[in-house]
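Human:
I keep going back and forth on a fold encoding question. Comparing notes only helps if you start from a blank page. Show me how you would write down a chain together with its backbone fold. Write it directly below this note and I will take it from there.

Assistant:
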Amino acid sequence: MITFRARPAEYPIAMPDQAFKTGPTVNHRAPKSQMWRKVIVFSLALLLAAWATIEMYNVLNVSGVTVLEKVLLAVFSLNISWIAYAFVSSTIGFLAALAGLLPAPKATTAPATQMIAGRTVVVFPIYNENVERVFATVEATAESLANAPGRFECFILSDTNDPEIALEEEAAFERLRSRIATGSMVHYRRRTMNLHRKAGNIRDFITRWGGRYDYMIVFDADSFMERDTLIELARRMDASPATGLIQTIPQLVGGRTLFARTQQFAAALYGPVLGSGLAWWAQNEGNFWGHNAILRISALANAAGLPEIPGRAPFGGSILSHDFVEAALLRRAGWNVQIAPELGGSYEQGPPSIIDLSIRDRRWCQGNMQHMAVLLKTRGLTFTSRMHLIIGIFSYLASPLWLLFITVGMLLSLQNMFLTPAYFGETAALFPSWPVIDSERSLQLFSATMAILFAPKLYGLIYGLASPRWRRTVGPVKTAMGVVAETLISVLLAPVMMVEQTTAVYRVFTGRDGGWNPQARESNEYTLSDTFRHHAPAIVLGVVLTVSAFAISPIFAAWLAPATIGMLLAATLSWWTGRTRSGDFALRMNLLESPEERDPPQSYLASVASRPAYQGLSAPSLANLFSDRNLRNRRTHIVDTHWPLAHSEVHTPLAIARARANRVSTIGEYITALEPKEKLALLNSPGDLDAVIDQYDARALQYATGTT
């Protein structure tokens, strides 16, 4: 019989919903950010965008601007504004990373061995994840903190709704508790009702156990963090009472497919540059990406309880991209929200294929589109927080806008070739309005746009060549070769991702809820037919654009080829880049190597080393539980029987599961008749499970004694 408790005694604190109206500032100690940095970034971006827009106007205004050309100009101005911001921010980040322009983090005066005052919990929100991988990471994290100079605990927060995975998690937790060192505190809670998804999962934890801890470090299911990084985050919280959140910049690790290794290389090389730029201008008004960050629990509870957005999904309901909004609400309440690009030792895994990335992107896209309502309804947000939300929104709107730009440009060309333009307006005119462009100026503008678009890759290359770690682990030649390979792959995949994100935006604006699906962590090795079905819209669009371009002229088709080739080859590229074999080939060719691949972090290695201990777990089935009371008694210590139901409210799946017992005569038929959500409800309610079994036992006894 298990003698430990899966969860500590509850220590609840309140986490009220925050009103969208102006919230009071409750933390006056938070230092203000330096406004001049924001002025520099956004002024330079606006000036660059204005210059490019004026140049575009001059390109079109050879003999007047037609209506279609005005539409083209408007779309171009939006697109170039996004590119200009990225260019200016990355330029400043590049200079900051090289010249040390980032302000030094506040150093802790205590020696490394002195105890951290605050109590820290590392939480692992999971949802139908691979049990072997998750529990191995929890074990590695708990073991690394066993002798840390402070009080650290780990808490697995499961939202799993698959009954088989739920039983695997229980078996894995038993295995975990038998393996960790004495004194390592690891807890497990699976919610009975998955209200408000991940944000609701965290909120349930805070409102029940939040008072037990001072700080909370949030992991994702594929996160890894070094021991020193975890300790340093807690130390920084101790040293800065005005700070509510510190966000690290995770690097990608463990990628095997070509797609994953390409992302991993790009994140390692360009990430420090982009992250330094963001941290430089955001300062104490940074952002939150939902994981690999530390939060002050009291600040989060008092200032960042998320209300539901009025209306139905996809725009209404629970806020999916909760992290951006939580950061904005923390800052609204006066708390520092910091990004720490100088703090390494933070890692995660990326999606293994374009299809897996697209599935995740649908949820992110929906969440970011919800931020439109947040911007409109929420008062009291700082300018910087609003810019974070706008940048997040535009990161998805940019794709349909670029597609619209291509479409309008093609319509202009087709108009010149085949249609009869309205040369004369409604008023009398001596000369027609010809839709003519300045070709030479157009080429100059195109060259300038490409220069600022690819500048961050050049910055990354220079950063890699200057970085001692890159020189030591990868080397200058392999770094340069990797930049070339990554650029070529990115150019080919960019049109595919443009179509994927445009589709995601279309789904949201047509009212389709993207849902919340578990993210793939390992390669699914999709078949070629799978990728053709998934990428059919991109292929069809590529055919239409190619045929239309050739109808205009071969030169126009060649100009459009960088976009159309990727679309035409979307399925093949998706299949090829999503395979482990292609990633291994790139590795043999010494391409796309990153320091994390050459010198893997200890946290990742420890997690991988622990995975065999969780393979082949003997998790009981529901039928086993029905037949073995000892198994049922064994799990009662693990199951969380907290049901967040109002007085007289009934959990429908549990009620149906109880009712089915009156309709089916045998246990085997009963188990077969149960729906997955009904099985889970029984697993989450040991008392009801025992009652159903007792009911069948009593019925069997009656038959055996002939009393019925």
About this structure: The first strand starts at residue 119 and ends at 126. The chain is about 60% helix and 5% strand. The CA atoms of residues 350 and 653 lie 35 Å apart. Strands lie at 119-126, 151-158, 185-190, 215-218, 223-225, 243-248, 251-252, 293-296, 336-340, 346-348.
